[in-house]
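Appendix B, record 7
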Amino acid sequence: MEGPLGSKGCPFINVTNNEVNNYYSAGPPYVIHIQDVIPLSKRWSELVPPTYDEYPLLYAEMFAYSMAAADSSLKHQLIKGLYTGCMTQWPHTHGKGELEALKTSAKSYASSIENARVGTADMDGGASTCFLPPLSPPPFLHYCSRYSFVTPYSDSGKNAQSDTPNSHFFAKRRVDHDILSCGHDYLEPFHSKKHERTEGGQKDWNVLAVCAVVRAINFAKKKGCETN
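Structure tokens (predicted):
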């Protein structure tokens, strides 16, 4: 490196906020030309340690990627609306019909979980079945560390607080590594009697994220085991 991050000797110090937002605030999936992969990856790996020294948290490597791309003048063509997750909610259009469908879809799944018997996991429909029309599923779902919701499910802006909540959630670090094994039980949302953390803040989307992750895993497992 030519200088510490943020110093005048830093190669990308002159990149503007507008350029960052338009070209470098990128996340996976990436489509990169083969001739760009090696130099970008090399610069990325060089910038991760000093970035972590300045920002010793989870997203340091993501910031380092953006800096490596800017330092390499490798502008990205950003595609909006390609994926959703805890950092980007869905739908992006905010059309009235879609927003109503978002609430209806969330209510439908939350009610099905509230009334389901243990051991009756969703397995016949994939992630797209979580989204009722006119709400279309996003092409990609970011499987963040955790999504959660509480039952009984409220139609208001926030879930009602209770001393004895029924929390249903997906936590990727709790999923067994052999979940796709045909001898393993199908995945069901995890359950607890305490308030679980909600990622992204939008409660309806948290419900559909749980639905999409659980149904996607179970659908893939069912299809794979049927062919064996």
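Remarks on this record: The first strand starts at residue 83 and ends at 84. Residues 203-226 form the longest helix (24 residues).
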